[in-house]
Amino acid sequence: MTHPRRAGATSGSDRAASVRSTHRSGRSEPSKRSGPRRLALLVLVGLGALVPRPVLADDEPAAEATDTAADAAPEAAELEAAADPDAAAEAEAEADPNAPPAPASEVTVGMYINRLRDVNLREGTYVVDFWMWFRWQNDDLHPAQTFELVNGEIENRIDSDVIDDLGFHYTSVRLVARIYHVFDVDHFPYDNHTLHIDIEDVESESHLQVYRPDVTYSALDPGVQVAGWDVALGETAAADHIYNTNYGFLSIGADTHAPFSRFIQKIELRRGTGMPLLKLFWVTFLSVLLGLLALRVHVTDLDARFGLSVGSIFAAMANTYVLGEILPETEAITMAEQMNFLGVGTIFLAVFISIASIRLVYAGREQASRRLDWWAFVGLGILYIVANVVVVKLHG
C-alpha cells in the first residue's frame, strides 16, 4: 500500500535524469574569448570576500535585544520558583535525585486535662474535657484545623486565634470528647486502666509533619476525680502510626503503607486496696454466711433450714445480675465472676448436705446427722475463705 503523501511523487533518480537531460539540451559551446573575462571575475569575487563587512546601525538593536533576553531568562526562572515552591522543589529533586529529602516540619503539642467523667466499663467509653495547644513555625501548616481525634468523637469545641509567641505560631483548642476504650476487666474490682487520647493530622504524613510532645507543660488538673479510682497523668508521647494499606488507590502500588505522626496522652486509673472488694461483694458474703448458718438449724425444722438456703441463693444470684450490668461481655471469667461462682457453689453444697443430713435422721442416725452438719459448717466456711484468698492473690 502506498502512503498518501507519496502519491504522484517522482523518484530522485528520475528527477536527476530529467535535470541532466535539460542541461545537456540547453547549453551552447563556449567561445574562446570568454576565458580571460571569467578569470578576472573570479579574482574580484575573491577579493570582495576578504574585505570585512561593517556593522550597520540597523543590526545594533537586534544584538541588544538578544543580550536583554539572555539576562532576563534567569530572573524569570527565579520568579517562577517563588510563585510555585512545590514545582521548584520537584524540579530541584529531578535535577539532583540523590539529594536528601527536606526534614519534616515539627509541631509541638501539649494537653491539660480539665475533667474526666462517665467512665462506663460496659459501653467502653468515657468523657474528657481538655485544652490542647500547638506551636509551629511552618507558615503553610494549620495543625489546629487539620488534626483529628483518632479514638473518639468531639462533642464540643472552642477554637482560639493563631498568635505569635517568640517566633512561633501558637494556638489552642478546648475540646469535650467521648473516647472509646476497651477496658480490661479480668481483674475487676481490682482493675487498673491506662486511658488514651490519640491525635493525628489528617493531611500530612510523618515525612511532612511530626508531632513533638510538650512533656514539660502537659498536666492534669488537681480537681479531676473518678469514683472508685485514683487518677494520675500518664505518659505524654508521640510516635508514628503506620496504616498498611493503599486505601484502594492502585496507581501508587499494592505494597504501600502510610505513616502518620500520632500524639498520645495517657491517663492512669488505679484502684484502691480492700474497699472495692468489700463494697461489691458484701451481699454475696452475707448470703454464704446465711447458707452456712442453715446447717446449724435442727434438721427436723425443714422450713427454717431450707428457707435460709433458698433465700441465700436468690441473694447471690441478684449480685450476679448487678455484675452483669457493670461489666462488658467477655469470654474470660473475671475475678468478680469467679468470686460470685464460689459463693453460689458454697450455698448449693450446703443445700445438698442438708438433704443428706435429713436422710440420716430418717434412717435413725441422728448423731451422725449432727456431726455431718457441724463438720460441713466448719469445712465449707474454711474452704470458701481459702478459695477467695487464692482468687484475690491470683488477680492482685
Mind explaining what this structure looks like?
It is a single chain. With 396 residues, the chain is an alpha+beta fold. It folds into three domains: 65-96; 105-271, Acetylcholine Binding Protein, Chain: A (Distorted Sandwich), CATH 2.70.170.10; 275-395, Methane Monooxygenase Hydroxylase, Chain G, domain 1 (Up-down Bundle), CATH 1.20.58. The chain contains nine helices and eleven strands. The protein has helices at residues 12-26, 34-50, 60-83, 85-95, 143-146, 275-293, 302-326, 335-362, 366-395, and strands at 105-120, 125-136, 147-149, 152-159, 163-165, 168-180, 193-201, 209-213, 219-220, 229-243, 258-271. Strands 1, 2, 4, 5, 6, 8 and 9 form a seven-stranded mixed β-sheet that branches. A four-stranded antiparallel β-sheet has the order 3-7-11-10. Strand 5 (163-165) and strand 6 (168-180) form a beta hairpin. Helix 7 (302-326) runs antiparallel to helix 8 and helix 8 (335-362) packs antiparallel against helix 9.
Give the structure's gist in a few sentences.
The chain has 396 residues and is an alpha+beta fold. Helix content is 44%, strand content 25%.
